[in-house]
Amino acid sequence: MHRVNARGRGWRWLVLAALCISGAVGCGREEPNPLPAREERAADKHPPSAGRFVDLRPRAGDVLVPPRIGFRWRYLAGADSVGELGSEGSNPSAEDHGPAPAFRLQVVDSLNVPYVRTETRDSDIRVTLPPGTPPGIYAWWVECVAPDDTTVLAASDRETFRIE
């Protein structure tokens, strides 16, 4: 009877050891992240070869007086995220690249409430803010959109300005 108990205990230890090893192997395995990092999502949405925005105005610290405020930027078609130019290297023109790109300007308040969303083919625009726009810090950005108006080809970083 003593031998049966020893054999029974040995079997239990073997099962327990196997479970521990398989658990350790399973814990070390990295599960794929269902939500990619922000940079990965941005790279998928905005291909680096599409272009980038530079010389954005207004910038942080700028104070604007409503109701009409102005924005401007420069779009470098074919520039990657660090500014290396592709074959185009400058603002696209109708002669070289077909129709001028469309830009979508968006302005939000500090709570991300939209105040302005408008489109233009120019690289500067003046917009009228809604009456009673309160003082505070606002964020803005511009996107280069494809002719279908649903695909964003490139987007600027967010810039801020103050309304007093």
UniProtKB/TrEMBL annotation:
<protein>
    <submittedName>
        <fullName>Uncharacterized protein</fullName>
    </submittedName>
</protein>
<feature type="region of interest" description="Disordered">
    <location>
        <begin position="30"/>
        <end position="52"/>
    </location>
</feature>
<feature type="compositionally biased region" description="Basic and acidic residues">
    <location>
        <begin position="30"/>
        <end position="47"/>
    </location>
</feature>
